[in-house]
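[job 0412] stage=fold_complex status=start
inputs:
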Amino acid sequence: MKLELRGITKRFGSLVANDHIDLVVNSGEIHSLLGENGAGKSTLMNVLYGLYQADEGEILLDGTVQHFKGPGDAMAAGIGMVHQHFMLIPVFTVAENVVLGNEPTGPLGTLNLDEARKRVREISDRFGFDIDPDALVEDLPVGAQQRVEIIKALARDAKVLVLDEPTAVLTPQETDELMSIMRGLAKSGTSIVFITHKLREVQAVADRITVIRLGAVVGEAKPSESAETLASMMVGRAVDLAVTKHKPKKGNIGLSVTNLTVVGDRHNKVVDDVSFEVHAGEVLAIAGVQGNGQTELAEALVGLRIPSSGTIHLGELDITHSSVREVIDAGVGYIPEDRSKDGLVGDFTIAENVMINRSYGPPFANGLQVDFASRDRITDQLIKDYDVRTPSRETLAKKLSGGNQQKVVVARELSRDLNLLIASQPTRGVDVGSIEFIHERIVATRDAGKPVVIISTELDEVTALADRIAVMFRGRIVGIVDATASRETLGRMMAGATA
Amino acid sequence: MSTVVTPGLFSQADVTVSKRTSYLLGFFALLVFFAFGIFGKAEPVAFQWSKEGDAIHLPDFIVGSNVVGIVVGSLLAAASVVSFLLARRRRATPMWITVGTGLTAVVALLAWIAAGDTIPFAFILGNAVVLAVPLALGAMGGIMSERVGVVNIAIEGQLLTGAFLAAVVGTLSGNLYVGLAAAMVGAALLSMVLAAFAIVYLVDQIIVGVVLNVLVLGITNFFYSQVLSNDGMHTNFPGTFDIMPIPGLSSIPILGHALFESRITTYLAYLIIPALWFVLFKTRLGLRARSVGEHPLAADTVGINVGRTRFWWVTIGGLVAGLGGAALTIGAVGAFGRNMSGGQGFIALAVVILGRWHPFSAAAAALLFGFSIVLRIWANQVSPDFPTDFITIVPYVVTLIAVIGFVGRVRAPAADGQPYIKG
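[job 0412] stage=fold_complex status=done
writing structure:
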C-alpha cells in the first residue's frame, strides 16, 4: 500500500511539532524517518496512527484521503504501529494482547482464545518468530515482546507498518534479526516506516531516507550517503562523531568490587558474584542488553541497594554498607539512567536541583539556612560552563529539553570533588549536540585522574568512551575485554557467550 | 532464534521463597496448642450441626474444649513443618494449606470461647452470610471500578444511598422491589458523578470519593432527623424481603440453612459474584475492561475507548453497590438508621484488596469479615464475662494477619487511580 502524507502540521500551543511535512512511502519500501530526539518523528507517526489529530494536511492511502478519528480507524485502514514504549499489557498472555480490540468471540461475547492462539501461531510460524501464545508478556524478553507487537500489527492485516525506534532495546544480533524480518515483510508487500536516530541502521536497511529537523523535513537522502552527511543533515551543522581521547594514564585502583551479589525485587540474584576493578584515570564501560543487572549494580555501588554479599571499596574505604549520603560525601558522582525519575525533581528549579544532594552544608547552606546568594552564584556559573539552555536558574527542571536536563545532572555531579564517577546511560534521549558535550566532559573527568564507570546499552557509546569493557549478562560479568574488541565479539558476549 | 534473555528474571533456582507464612503458622500452632489446649478450659463443648426438626439430623459432637485446642494445635504444627520443608525446597506453601489451617484455628477459638456450652454452626454461618452480603456487593462494585483504573472510595456513600433509598422508596411505594430498584439506580447515579468528575474532568479520584461520602452522609442524616424519625411509620417502615428456602438445597446438612434459606438480596449476590468473574475473565468485555485498568494508552492504541469503558464500568459498579446497600435495610433489619453503613464501605474497600481484585477471593474475604462480626455478637452471648472489646478487635487482627502473612504480593491493576489524559 502506498502511503502519502501531505503538508501535515501539528501544533501544541505555540510549539509547532510538525511543520507542513510531506512524506511518500511506496508499497514494499522500507522508508527511514531520521531525526534527533524531539525532532517531531513520533508526533508525526501519532498523527498517522490517529492518536493525534493534525491541524492541517491530509493522509492518503493508495491515493484516497483518509480521516482517522482514532487508532481504530487507522488500524482498520491497514496501518500498524510498533511503539517505542511497547503497547502491551504485561499481565496478559501473548494471545490476549494480540487480539485485544479485535477479539474472536463465541456466544455471549465469550473470548475464543483457541482462535486467538491459532492466529498467533500462524503469523509466528510464517515469519519464524517462535512465540508461545500462552506466555505472559511480562515474562518475555524485550526482543520477544517486540515480535509480539509486530504480530499484533500483522494480525490486523497491516499493510503499512510503522516501527518507532525499534532497536533501542535490542542486542546487535537481535537488531540484525529485526532487520531481516523487516526485509521479509517488505518483500511480501508491506510498506515499512522505520523511525530511528541511529545512522548505522538506516544505512543498513533503508531504501530511502527522509530527514526531519525541528519539526520540518530537511530533505531526502540515499542510504549510500556517508554517516557524517546524514548526521549533519540531522543536526543542522557539521558533527564530529568520533570522541577524541588520549591514551589513559592509569593510576592506583580507585574502585574495587569483589564478589558482589544483589538480590532483586523478585527475590532473585540480579547481580550475581560480580568482581571488577577500575583504576584512576580509566573508563570502564559496562555493556549489555537492558535488564541484565546493570541498573541494580549501579544502585548498589551508590548505596541505593543493599548487597547481600561481597564488598565495594573506594580506594581504601569500604563503602559496601554505606548510606547514600556517606557515598556522596566520599566523592562518588552518579548520573542515573532515568534523569526524570532519579536524577532531577521536575517541579524544582534548576538552582534547587543543583543543591539537592549537598543541601546540608557549604557552599549551599550555613547551619540551618540555605545560602541563596552562594547557591545562585554557583548555579549561574554551572549554567554557563555546561551550556544549559534555559531562560533562568529559576526555571523548573521539567520545562527543559532532555539534553538540557541531562546537562544539569552532569553539571551537578561533576562540579564537586570526585573520587569516582558512575554514569548510567549518560546520553539516553539526548540530542547529538549535547551527546558530544557530555562525552567530552566524561573523558575530561578521566583525564583528571578519576576512575569512571560508564553503564550503557549503546555499543557506539561504549566503544567510543571506554578503555576497557565489561559485558553483563543475566547478572554476571561474562568477560572484561579491551576497548578494541570487535562489535561482533561484544554482541556475542551480550548474548551470554564468554569472551 | 537467539538466546532468550528475560530481564529481571534470570533463573528460577535463584528465587528464594519467603518463610514468613511458615513462621506465622508456627506461631499460631504454639498459640492454639498452649492457650486453647494445655492451658485451656476442660469443660466439654457441643458442636451443634443441625437445628431441631431438620430433615437430616446430625447428632451434636461433644468434646472437651482443651482437647480441641491440642488436636488443632498439633495440626497447625504439622502444617507449619510442611510449610518450612516446602520453603527449603524453594516452593511456596499452597493456598489450601494456609486457608485450611486458618479455618481449623477458628474452630479451636470457637471451642475455647464456648467451653461448657454449644457452638451453633448453622446460626453462625447463616448470620455471617447475611452480614457478608453488603460487604461482598460493595466489594464487587469496587472491583468493577478499580479493574478499569478508577479508585472507588465512594463505596461507603453508595451503600448508604442504597440503604436509604431502599427503605424510603420501599415504604412509600409499598413495594420492596421498587425500593430495590431505586437503591440500585440511586447508587449508580452517585457513581456516575464520581465517573464524570474523575474521568471527564480529571479531578483527584480520592477527593471526589471522600466528598461524595460526606455528602451522602449529610443528606441522609438530614432526612433522617427531619422526616424519618418524625413519621417513621409512613416513611421508614419497609419491612424485609421474605426468606425463600430453596427446595432441596436448604436441607443440606450444616450448609443448607446458612446458604439456601435466605432473602433475594443474598441470592442476587450469589448470581452477581460468578457473573462478574465470568465477564471479567472470560469475555471480550472483561478483557477490554482489564486492559483499560492496566495500560490505558495500550488499550487506546487498539481502538478501545478508555473514557467510555471507565465511565460505564464505574456506573454499573454503583448499581451493584446500591444492591449491597439495600441488603442492609430491606435485606436484613427492615428500617433505615442514621449512618447505617457505619464504615462498611471502607471495609468493602479492604475486602477488594484482600481479595486481590478477584470476585471469588473478595467474596471469601467478605465472608471472613461477616464471620468476625457474628463472632463478636455470639461470643458476647455465650460467655458474657468475656471481654467484648477483645473480640471486637478480632476482625482487624484477622485483616492484618491475612494481609501480612497470607496474601503475599498484592498487585493492583497497574493504572488504578491514574487519570488517562489523551495527547
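[job 0412] summary: DSSP finds 17 helices and 22 strands in chain A.
[job 0412] exit 0
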